[in-house]
Specification:
Layout (H helix, E strand, L loop, with lengths): L14 E2 L10 H11 L3 H16 L26 H9 L5 H7 L19 E2 L1 E5 L5 E6 L7 E4 L6 H5 L2 H5 L2 E5 L7 E5 L5 H16 L5 E4 L5 E7 L7 E12 L6 E15 L3 H7 L9 E4 L2 E4 L6 H4 L6 E2 L3 H7 L11 H17 L2 H6 L24 E2 L5 E2 L2 H8 L9 E9 L3 H11 L8 H5 L4 E2 L5 E3 L5 H9 L8 E9 L8 H16 L3 E6 L5 H18 L6 E2 L6 E10 L6 E9 L10 E3 L3 H18 L5 E6 L5 H13 L6 E5 L10 E2 L13
Helix pairs in contact: 14-18, 16-17
Length: 691
């Protein structure tokens, strides 16, 4: 289908006319432009009527909020993984990042050639569509205006400079809008030649068409629109649940087609009570607010909050976060999807069929209606040898758990003697006895002594049974500070904790970490087990991972890669946001040689680039003390490195006079919600492992 814009006879480069009030535009042409801009008016009338109806409704119904109490707080442990850093990127962009996004938004994907019909069946979450053959017209302003998008002149037709030569010297930016105001100039653009303008035109057009069909929407920090689809969740009567989807327009210069990337971004909840009520009647500290809802859009509650929002605090509703949930005694819902890719496909496919496959939408975006196939030439499968691991006595396998069980660890635990013991409250005595059964193989499918290849003596004199009301830290510290330990023996504690490391109450979370700390001071490794999640099934299924962790904690190496590259230094960097200080840190600088041997750990504030250089320098120095040279440096980083970061590392290595090849790998153990690959021939839509 073709867009409603008529083909212009103007030059391919684009046309810049005089302002609306100038000599170059008469009233007749003005009406023609308006018709072009409002070409979808007839087909969207019904949707706009629905939007007007929704706008008249009060956003959230008043809940019986006074019935909430502390017992409603969910006890589920929350696995943060990478989520905190995603929040940091959105809420606190790095200095200058917002300007970079506004001014220099780059093309974020390329449009592939048509895939072959026998393309191996794999497909991705993209919808291809043809760009309009006719040019489109924007309203253009040389000064900043509310609701207009800023563009660098280099992203637009070069005719701009001939008409307004002052742009290049005075200010390299202009502002565009889909609708021209009386004092605007008009800019005609061929969308196939100017990707940034194409992205803006389709992103805003799509939002105008879809916004009325969703209760909420928000712009991401890259200025794509995210749509919040309300879903019923009767379990949480004081919260409103939403599934979030983002539609991204992916373009490339000099292409007559583009893609829509549709992503599923997870669940969010909005508190069913306004900010005024929560602060005045329920004592909520507004410092806890991060994102809020006002008039069907999400806003950040910070210094940039617009005045029209601040004047209507009775119509502002908080998006739920953990601190708000704790303060108000609300549950903090957390769901662990076992089949994340499968669920993502189901949600994305249903969303697209409902909202993107309608006649109205396909007039605006004439996509094929089918997910984009992946060219078979682009599908690679890692060979079996690349996935092989080395275990005890040089045995090779491609399953870590089975390999350690059958052959033992690649490197044994150094000490010949090991004693284990337990720390638990009296109320967890039965759990402690059951755990012991699984450790020694009386229950379950493996025995830890055989698995780690080391006899494990249960040492009752070190076992500590705590009274329910006692100060756990004080009792443990008093007990373990005075016990004698043998130098040739490894000690390992199983700590059945009433609190998890994600415990919401700071005092309780402190107990978890203090117990582990005082054990470490005596050189005792430990494995904490959450008493609240202790079930026979969970313990049985966890024993393999506990065994792998025990081997590593006691100085062994569970497995190594079969195909090792000699004289290679591997350094991993992770990210963490302190729940106490709310400050981001970069740390977990795990430094290994190619044998997998741990060298060093460090941590520093996220903005301190000098610390990263210091870690690299120290790691290289220590490695070279034991090895003549480093063939290559492999950096496992927690996020994609920017060109500036690469340049900084390159200069740093030059300063060290170390001409080392550098490979940067992004390591991410959380689910990526961007470009996904699905297999229609597999029930759960999963591609073959290694694809």
């Amino acid at each position: 289908m073709k867009p409603t814009n008529k083909k212009s006879n103007k030059s391919e480069e684009g046309l810049l006319t005089d302002s609306v009030n100038g000599n170059g535009l008469n009233n007749e042409f003005r009406r023609a432009v308006n018709k072009i801009m409002d070409g979808e008016e007839d087909i969207s009338a019904e949707l706009r009527d629905k939007e007007d109806l929704l706008n008249e409704e009060h956003l959230f119904e008043e809940a019986d909020y006074d019935t909430l109490n502390e017992s409603d707080v969910s006890g589920d442990e929350i696995d943060i993984e990478e989520a905190d850093w995603e929040i940091i990127d959105e809420e606190n962009p790095e200095e200058g990042q917002e300007d970079a996004v506004d001014d220099e938004r780059e093309v974020i994907d390329s449009v592939d050639d048509d895939p072959e019909e026998d393309a191996g069946s794999l497909f991705t979450n993209k919808l291809r569509f043809d760009l309009p053959k006719s040019n489109v017209i924007f309203g253009l302003s040389l000064k900043e205006k509310e609701g207009y998008r800023r563009f660098h002149f280099g992203k637009l037709p070069s005719l701009l400079l001939s008409e307004f030569p002052s742009i290049k010297t005075d200010n390299p930016f202009v502002w565009l809008n889909l609708d021209a105001e009386e004092d605007d100039h008009l800019l005609e653009v061929d969308l196939s030649k100017y990707p940034a303008a194409c992205w803006y035109w389709f992103t805003e057009r799509i939002h105008r068409l879809l916004a009325g069909q969703f209760r909420l929407s928000q712009k991401t920090y890259l200025d794509d629109w995210q749509y919040w689809q309300e879903i019923p969740d009767p379990e949480f009567k004081d919260l409103i649940a939403f599934r979030k989807f983002t539609i991204k327009v992916l373009t490339i210069k000099d292409s007559t087609s583009a893609n829509l990337l549709v992503t599923y971004d997870g669940l969010s909840y909005v508190v069913n009570k306004n900010v005024n009520t929560l602060s005045s009647k329920h004592g909520m500290d507004t410092q806890l607010l991060i994102r809020v809802v006002f008039e069907k859009q999400i806003h950040f509650y910070n210094d940039h909050l617009k005045e029209n929002v601040r004047y209507n605090t009775a119509k502002i509703y908080p998006v739920l976060n953990r601190p708000i949930a704790i303060a108000l005694g609300l549950p903090y819902p957390f769901y662990t999807e076992k089949l994340k890719l499968t669920r993502a496909y189901e949600y994305i496919d249903a969303f697209s069929k409902k909202y993107l496959n309608t006649r109205e939408f396909r007039v605006l975006v004439p996509h094929t209606g089918n997910w984009q196939l992946i060219d078979a030439k682009q599908v690679l499968v890692i060979g079996n040898r690349s996935r092989n691991f080395s275990f005890g006595e040089g045995n090779i396998g491609n399953n870590i758990l089975n390999g350690v069980r059958d052959y033992g660890p690649a490197r044994l635990i150094p000490k010949r003697h090991a004693k284990i013991f337990m720390i638990f409250r009296k109320s967890d005595t039965r759990k402690a006895l059951r755990l012991k059964d699984y450790i020694y193989g009386d229950k379950g499918f493996l025995a830890l002594p055989a698995f780690v290849r080391l006899p494990l003596t249960y040492f009752k004199p070190l076992t500590l049974e705590l009274e329910e009301e006692s100060d756990m830290v004080e009792a443990a510290e008093k007990f373990y500070s005075s016990v004698g330990l043998e130098d040739d023996t490894a000690y390992f504690a199983f700590y059945i904790s009433p609190f998890s490391k994600w415990e919401e109450v700071p005092a309780n979370r402190e107990v978890y970490y203090r117990i582990k700390e005082l054990l470490l001071k005596r050189g005792i490794m430990s494995q904490a087990i959450d008493s609240n999640k202790f079930t026979e099934f969970s313990i049985k299924m966890s024993m393999g991972n506990i065994g792998l962790a025990m081997i590593a904690k006691l100085g062994g190496i569970p497995w190594q890669l079969e195909d090792k590259t000699q004289q290679e230094l591997v350094i991993g960097f992770g990210a963490y946001k302190s729940m106490k200080s709310k400050q981001p840190f970069v740390g977990s600088a795990f430094c290994f040689d190619d044998s997998g041997q741990f060298q060093e750990f460090d941590c520093w504030p996220a903005k301190e680039l000098w610390a990263l250089h210091g870690i690299l320098a120290e790691a290289i120095k220590k490695y070279k003390e034991k090895n003549k040279e480093i063939k290559r440096l492999v950096i496992h980083y927690y996020k994609p490195l920017r060109k500036k970061d690469f340049a900084d590392i390159d200069r740093f290595l030059d300063d060290l006079d170390e001409p080392i090849p550098v490979i940067v790998v992004r390591m991410n153990n959380s689910f990526e919600n961007e470009v996904l690959v699905f297999n229609p021939n597999q029930q759960q839509k999963l591609p073959e492992n290694g694809t």
